[in-house]
Give the backbone structure.
Amino acid sequence: MPAVSTSVMIGAIVTYLGNKLAKNESVNSFFDDFSEATVNWIKPLFIKEDDTPTRSLEKLSTNPNSASKQNLLKATLESELEDNPDAEEYIREIYEKISQSEEGKDMLDERDFKQLAQEQFLKGYAESDAIYDTNVNQNIAIQGVNDATISIVKDKIMR
């Protein structure tokens, strides 16, 4: 497996949890595939002793696709990693298990594709004269074009 930054692994973990919640799946099964040490580290970050979700997980469950709700979970993991640098081993274990699952592979492929398409779109946009347009409405339209471009490019590649 190629080297992956901790922030990318954390992002993948949070996205995976968000996907499970979006499909109304329990996150309790998420903990089944990890070593005892990993479960002992991560489970209290998301599940209280009475088996109810922590505030951050509960907020994510109300809107799993919300960037701010996902960032709350990312910040939780990053903060814990800051307090315990050895926890990177647990994050890596979780990331590797996710990337080995069929659902995880699909999610990571989709994320990689979107990131590549966005980088290529922005590179092309930066090279055009339109980069000098600082109109706020234009910037909003660019985001919509960006999403549409990703979809069009993906459709062409998948054919």
User: Anything to note?
Assistant: Residues 102-126 form the longest helix (25 residues). The chain is about 70% helix and 0% strand. The chain has two domains: 6-100, 110-158. The CA atoms of residues 35 and 93 lie 8 Å apart.
